[in-house]
């Protein structure tokens, strides 16, 4: 239900594309399946009739935890936008019987999109030759051109998909964004090395360069805040917090990351005002309709002693949650209700 700083760094690294994989602006390779575990796609990239469809081709495996975590998101995208011409293909290079066994488990996540077993690894070799880490997805437009590549939970996927489906996607801008991402990833790798060596001067210089490349990205700010405390430069945090709030004010995904990050910090390193303003701003941007955000707001409410409010928030979240996650949300609600009952008994004893 939330990802912290470590998880976000892992996604950033796993989503990096390498030279041998299709780049933004390249034509999409062919997709070949030995067997379709669900329904076969109406058409595949590059085939006759594909100019009426937009494709999201994702590579995953049954053993991959992050892959399983992304399945509900892909399922929701399919339900919302298949009618608009989106075709989601989940491709695994595992044997068909392994995939089938996974999908038939009693608590397996729903996969209503098109799931295929790779044909002798041909699809994986064509698309994923030099990409390290799964899940990884490619967005292909109606001209069979790759327009985006990354982790399925990357916050850039949905706005990009919206533009592609509406015919408003700017490929030139996308190529620049890809170049920026490449530079950003290089700086990230150097920053990790500097952190390992405890070279604080170099580390902060690299983080500032990352901020310059992607000023609306949460991760560099969160890294800087973390390392300011790590290197005993706590007095600088207050000024940084003001910059963070200003930079991320209208970025829903970044605000959520900021809230997650704050909740992970030791109590003496948290900024209660920023925590509250970040989550309430994200709520304003989403109009109380996102179950994951409602669950995050409930968690903040508990932190702030607003237990009744947290229970009410989770009661809103439960019916909005994806079917495969609804039991998890119900358990959280039950936990909050149990806390209230225990607190009541503690007061009366």
Structural notes for this entry:
There is one protein chain. The radius of gyration is 22 Å and the shape is globular. The chain has helices at residues 5-14, 65-81, 96-103, 122-128, 157-165, 171-196, 200-213, 218-230, 237-248, 252-264, 272-286, 291-303, 307-320, 326-348, and strands spanning 33-36, 54-59, 86-92, 114-118, 136-140, 146-150. Mean pLDDT is 90; it is low at 10-19. The relative contact order is 0.11. Among the domains are: 5-169, Glutaredoxin (3-Layer(aba) Sandwich), CATH 3.40.30.10; 294-349. Helix content is 56%, strand content 9%. The protein has 349 residues and is an alpha/beta fold. Helix 3 (96-103) links the parallel strand 3 (86-92) and strand 4. A six-stranded mixed beta sheet has the order 1-4-3-2-5-6. The chain has 14 helices and six strands.
CATH topology of the domain at 5-169: Glutaredoxin
Q: Write the H/E string, N to C.
A: HEEHEHEHEEHHHHHHHHHH
Shape: globular
Question: How large is the radius of gyration?
Answer: 22 Å
Question: Percent of residues in beta strands?
Answer: 5-15%
Overall helicity: 55-70%
- Secondary-structure content class: alpha/beta
Could you give a short account of the major beta sheet? Answer: 6 strands, mixed
CATH hierarchy, class of the domain at 5-169: Alpha Beta
The number of helical segments is: 14
Q: Uncertain runs with pLDDT below 50, 5 residues or more? A: 10-19
Name the average pLDDT.
90
* Assigned CATH architecture of the domain at 5-169: 3-Layer(aba) Sandwich
Would you report the number of β strands? 6
> Order of strands side by side in the largest beta sheet?
1-4-3-2-5-6
End-to-end gap: 35 Å
CATH level-four homologous superfamily name of the domain at 5-169? Glutaredoxin
